[in-house]
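Appendix B, Record 12. Input sequence as logged:
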Amino acid sequence: MNLLALDTSTDTLSIAARKAGGAVQVRSAAGGAQSSHTLIPLIREVMQEVSLTFDALDAIVFGRGPGSFTGLRTACAVAQGLALGARGLREADALPVLPVDSLLAIAETARVEHGATRVHAVLDARMSEVYAAAYEWQPETQHWRGLDEFVVLAPQDVLVAPGFIVAGNAQAAYADRLAPDAQHVYALPTATAMLRLAPDLLARGLAVPANQALPLYVRDKVAQTTAEREAAKQLAQTQTAPTGHGAQPR
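Logged structural output:
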């Protein structure tokens, strides 16, 4: 299959492209706020290296999250734009888009790089929390089975079952707070991992029309607007203000 994959869910931007029967070409760079400036030029580079035009792609794969809110929006928007523009701007002609869970891609990276088949995947969610989910590799079907739903929780609350390896990027940030008795390996949700996962996920019908591709945030909101903070402050002041001499609170 002719595939392009991209992930900007972490501080590392990852891009990979593969032409059917050919080698995979990869690019990585600093992610975060820089992703929006470097993503498109790097995509063009890998597409040229594998001698692929966008209209020849079978699908565009992107890391849907959880992860950096800005990064997830960037990856989703670029995947949608490329899918819609590859064969014209009519939605009916758009390429299919395959959203891939970032934690699943971490499990796949840990399998290939570390031989792990039972993985508790974690990503640093900032604010002293992690995103987490457990997976088990099914050798008979050659795909991963998710064992639970994505969660966001404090690192000390991550419970790792015996025999599972903790894989991700959160160990450096939380050290002994994160599953201190478990084995840890460093792994990121790379675009190459997503390329390996893509054929099975596509065969299972998990691609979506470009206009239906959405990021997976897990945590709905990480910050309040200035107006929301001011309103909350005023409400707190009202609730704690003295009621006056002899007055009874209502």
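The first strand starts at residue 3 and ends at 7.
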